[in-house]
Design brief:
single chain; alpha+beta; five-stranded antiparallel sheet; three-stranded mixed sheet; binds fe (ii) ion
């Protein structure tokens, strides 16, 4: 299958992978023919990229180390807990969270287990799930990225558990920000921006009062918007003043924010999200954390069309764990002319570089 921008899908193309809702139900089956109505609806749902079936790439599959079952379970726990926090004025947030704390820990343990046991790299483009609430999806994605970084940095199991719970709850302080401010498509006023910024400290205040939750997990909420150069908030901490967990969360949070579809702009592809991090390499974001992140996640997802500096172009067919910036590419064209498809392992050809990734031009010149 191939990954394409939904807006570029041709009418009658066949969907290569099912699309789910957050309860794990299939909304659109693999093999469905895309109509103008379906394409418009997917775009309306914020699905910027889809997989389509294609004869040249029929055997290419995009795998994910974390099972769909576990992700749905984690999403549902986050959703239930956050909704209880939002709609409950009689019970203190600390009590609600105390009740969920055990469940959170169990989930984190299962996520760690699946991430450790898998040969696959973390690839969030692998499954396409329609979520109707950004905070829940974001909390889950950030948790997965955070754990993947933590594992790569060889943190202890105990540290990973604290970090994972902190990641799941890092934006908990946003639950009482008015929806209109949180989802505002235009520029925020200074006052609105202040209200949003308060979520870090509010989250800390909520979490530090939860019995059974380590204080360090509360600091994850407090510090995830701090930046090494002191330009972050709420306290403008610098360098090592920011706890390692805060530095890890900063990277995971920004990457997910830019690669997710938001009301004010379209999603970036993973390699573009990584460029955003590199713009702050060692200045805003911890360079060791970015290095670990780069090793742990898929940069060029299977199915992505790429152009190479030797005049060839094709589709990413598989990844190497450990050198995921050098995937195997199925070459389909040489200097614009179609050739008999063959695999080119970029790990074995150091001089060949990926010069472009294009989710928009794919398939166009062949139809
Ligand atoms: Fe945040």
């Amino acid at each position: 299958m191939r990954l394409i921008a939904t807006s570029e899908a041709n009418l009658g193309s066949t969907l290569g992978k099912a699309i789910y809702n957050d309860n794990g139900q299939i909304l659109l089956n693999k093999g469905a023919a895309l109509t103008a109505g379906i394409i418009a609806r997917l775009i309306g749902f914020g699905i910027d990229y889809i997989y389509i079936e294609d004869p040249d790439t029929a055997d290419i599959i995009s795998a994910n180390p974390v099972s769909e079952e576990l992700r749905v379970a984690a999403y549902n726990t986050i959703q239930t807990t956050f909704q209880q926090l939002e709609g409950n004025f009689n019970v203190s947030p600390a009590i609600v969270l105390e009740n969920s704390a055990k469940e959170f820990k169990l989930l984190i343990r299962s996520l760690i287990k699946e991430l450790t046991g898998s040969k696959e790299l973390l690839n969030l483009l692998s499954d396409i799930i329609i979520h109707d609430n950004y905070i829940f999806t974001h909390s889950l994605n950030v948790t997965l990225y955070t754990l993947a970084i933590g594992l790569e940095m060889k943190l202890s199991e105990r540290d990973l558990e604290v970090l994972g719970v902190g990641a799941m709850l890092h934006d908990v302080g946003k639950m009482n920000i008015p929806h209109e401010v949180l989802m505002k498509p235009g520029r925020l006023t200074e006052d609105e921006f202040k209200v949003i910024q308060e979520h870090a400290e509010k989250g800390f205040e909520i979490l530090r009062n939860v019995e059974g939750l380590p204080l360090l997990a509360a600091h994850c909420a407090f510090q995830h918007h701090e930046r090494l150069d002191g330009t972050g908030y709420p306290r403008g901490l610098k360098g090592q003043e920011i706890h390692l967990f805060g530095r890890i969360l900063g990277v995971a949070d920004v990457f997910d924010a830019v690669t997710s579809n938001r009301v004010y702009r379209a999603a970036m592809l993973p390699h573009e999200g990584l460029e955003v991090l590199y713009a702050g390499y060692g200045t805003k974001y911890d360079s060791h954390v970015i290095d670990a992140f780069k090793r742990a996640v898929v940069i060029y997802p299977a199915g992505l069309s790429v152009e190479l500096n030797n005049g060839c172009s094709g589709v990413v067919s598989s990844q190497h764990k450990g050198s995921n910036g050098r995937p195997v590419v199925r070459i389909l064209q040489e200097n614009g002319r179609r050739v008999q498809p063959y695999e080119l392992d970029l790990r074995q050809h150091a001089s060949i570089l990926i010069t472009g990734c294009d989710a928009t031009a794919m398939g166009k010149n062949e139809q």
